Amino acid sequence: MAQLFPVVNTREMVSSTVPIAFEFVWAFLKAVVYFFWLFLKVFWLPIIIILFLFGFLLLIKYRK
């Protein structure tokens, strides 16, 4: 049976703290980008419509 969580050696962990931290940050960034991409895939049309309306309102407001 494969191990789901590898056994953590504390001495090894202390010596390689920076790569572990970097991997956590990298995984977090990948997750953020992935969820952002999903959000854009679902909501790109409403976002474009809202931005268009907002720009139109600004155009009307500041056209004197």
Brief description of this entry?
By secondary structure, the protein is mainly alpha-helical. It is 81% helix and 0% strand. The mean pLDDT is 80.
Strand content: under 5%
End-to-end span in angstroms? Answer: 73 Å
Radius of gyration over alpha carbons? 23 Å
How are helices and strands ordered from N to C? HH
Helix content: over 70%
Number of helices: 2
Q: How many DSSP E strands?
A: 0
Transmembrane segments: 20-37, 43-60
Keywords: Membrane, Transmembrane, Transmembrane helix
Tell me about this structure.
The protein has a domain at 19-62. The protein is elongated. It has two helices and no strands. It has 64 residues and is an all-alpha fold.
Task: Produce the secondary structure layout.
Elements (H helix, E strand, L loop, with lengths): L9 H6 L1 H46 L2
Task: Please tag this protein with its features.
64 residues; mainly alpha; 2 helices; elongated; transmembrane helix; transmembrane; membrane
